[in-house]
Structures are given as structure tokens and as C-alpha cells.
Amino acid sequence: GSLLFHQLPLVEIDGMKLVQCRAILSYIAGKYNLYGKDLKERALIDMYVEGISDLMQLILMFPFSPPEAKEKNIAKIAEKAKERYFPVFEKVRDGEDVPRKPAFTIIRNFPKSKNVLVLMLSGL
């Protein structure tokens, strides 16, 4: 069928049926010239996208923590986010060493509060 790996998302564009989030996003970014003007900008974008992906993996695995480990795991996630990921995203958000391009808009709109992760996870 249309679903190459039998899973969503599926986007039909330019006569193609694209699956997998990263493939879809890369295609759209390339088509609309949002993926950086040169190899260096594309590499920067890829680094930040992978960083966001790594952070999201930590967050997405949290609900599967055993009940006795939830408190320890949320503290570990929050610590990694605050020490490893947030400082990098904040530098981009504040325009340090990053081009002012549409491709960096998502990272530039990263919340200013370092407690956003704890707030997101508190309801789980």
C-alpha cells in the first residue's frame, strides 16, 4: 500500500507519497529553500534537529518508566535538558553564531524558561 512502513505520517506532494517525519520535513525544507543556503548551514540545522530529537526521545520514554523510577528519571531528564540542551538552544534563540534564516525559526522560538521541561512532564 501507500504506507511504506505501515505507519503514519504520510504526505502526498508533487506526485509522491512520502513517509517518515524527517524525510517529509527534509523534502519540504528543500523544496521551499528553508534548509540553509549552503552545506555549512544545512549541517548546523541538522545538528540542532538531532539535538531536539535526542531531547524528545528522553521525554517520550519517561511515561514508560517504572513507577518507582519516575522521580529519579524526571530529575535526570530535567538535569540533562538544563545542562546539555537548553544552553545550546538558548544561544541559537538569542542569535549567537546562527544565521537569521527561516530554517532556525523553531529553535529561536524555544521557550525562555528552563523550567518548561519540568512543567511539561509534571502532568505525566
UniProtKB/TrEMBL annotation:
Identification of the protein by name: glutathione transferase
GST N-terminal domain boundaries: 1-36
GO BP term, example: glutathione metabolic process
Enzyme class per UniProt: transferase
E.C. no: 2.5.1.18
Keywords: Transferase
Family: Belongs to the GST superfamily. Alpha family.
Coiled coil start-end: none
Presence of the UniProt keyword Lipid metabolism in the record: no
Any GO molecular function: glutathione transferase activity
Gene3D superfamilies (UniProt xref): 1.20.1050.10, Glutaredoxin
GST C-terminal domain boundaries: 38-124
InterPro entries: Glutathione-S-Trfase_C-like, Glutathione-S-Trfase_C_sf, Glutathione_S-Trfase_N, GST_superfamily, Thioredoxin-like_sf
